[in-house]
Amino acid sequence: MLLLAAAFLVAFVLLLYMVSPLISPKPLALPGAHVVVTGGSSGIGKCIAIECYKQGAFITLVARNEDKLLQAKKEIEKHSINDKQVVLCISVDVSQDYSQVENVIKQAQEKLGPVDMLVNCAGMSLAGKFEDLEVSTFERLMSVNYLGSVYPSRAVITTMKERRVGRVVFVSSQAGQLGLFGFTAYSSSKFAIRGLAEALQMEVKPYNVYVTVAYPPDTDTPGFAEENKTKPLETRLISETTSVCKPEQVAKQIVKDAIQGNFNSSIGSDGYMLSSLTCGMAPVTSITEGLQQVVTMGLFRTIALFYLGSFDSIVRRCMMQRAKSEIADKTA
């Protein structure tokens, strides 16, 4: 009886693997496609632009700093695969004025054609204890990280639905899957992106438009270096429990998942575990993906409890060390 059940399970799994490609989205062809990357002048955004350019795409880079944009443009152009490819640079703050964002997207489409893929990579991070952060910090991060993704997406989505093709990528963070000490402002702005992405995917899927949410870990970028300047000790120690990724590695995975129309994009074993743990009611691209989440949930939750226990231990140790230091200062 057990052998029969095992055989049935194996047959069922094999059937899922066979059927899965039939219901998965058709991959987006990047050669000749128009890819818009916000926050594309440095870090992950620039590496995503390079990766798409290597595959024959036309690129529109959007960022605030004109000098960095021009420098990124020169670097990207070194990776062309034909003499027809173009890199267009547009300087604008995507988080401030929707009408301005809409206008620059129209300009880009007039020059390079309709947007086939939008990558929302503009963002920033500031760390600190909840009571130490200014209220303006919460407003600023929500504006840059959340509205800075809403505005460009709103500007391209109608055309994508009309053409029945498109990809919208939101670059969140592992801090958008798990709230951590020191990230009360940052995590909340990144968590908001997932809610937007899930709702948007349900709206646009019938039009053959697919949404991808990327959850990169700590990545060696100028933004990460800036973030480290304000990290509390607890946040820094928790971050050090995992390795820092290269932006090129992260970019390759994001582009690969976006092309395939995968809703989730994660990096490494920790990223895979986090994505399975936090999948909730998120859409799946294939039956296989859903089955993997069901099978691994219990094991991953057990592992996660050990992680959470170690994080709590770090916070307690820092608190005790701080208390000892304060007593020593008083008695000195």
From TrEMBL:
Q: What are the protein's UniProt keywords?
A: Endoplasmic reticulum, Lipid metabolism, NADP, Nucleotide-binding, Oxidoreductase, Signal, Sphingolipid metabolism
What domain of life is recorded for the organism?
A: Eukaryota
Q: Name one GO cellular component term.
A: endoplasmic reticulum membrane
The biological processes this protein is annotated with in GO are:
3-keto-sphinganine metabolic process; sphingolipid biosynthetic process
Q: Where does the secretion signal sit in this chain?
A: 1-25
Q: In which pathway does it act?
A: Sphingolipid metabolism; Lipid metabolism; sphingolipid metabolism
A GO molecular-function annotation: 3-dehydrosphinganine reductase activity
- Pfam families membership: adh_short
Tell me which CDD domains the record gives: KDSR-like_SDR_c
Question: Which enzyme class?
Answer: oxidoreductase
Q: What is the catalytic activity of this protein?
A: sphinganine + NADP(+) = 3-oxosphinganine + NADPH + H(+)
Subcellular localization(s) per the UniProt record: Endoplasmic reticulum
Which EC number(s) does UniProt give? 1.1.1.102
Function, as annotated: Catalyzes the reduction of 3'-oxosphinganine (3-ketodihydrosphingosine/KDS) to sphinganine (dihydrosphingosine/DHS), the second step of de novo sphingolipid biosynthesis.
Family stated for the protein in its record: Belongs to the short-chain dehydrogenases/reductases (SDR) family.
Q: What is this protein called?
A: 3-ketodihydrosphingosine reductase
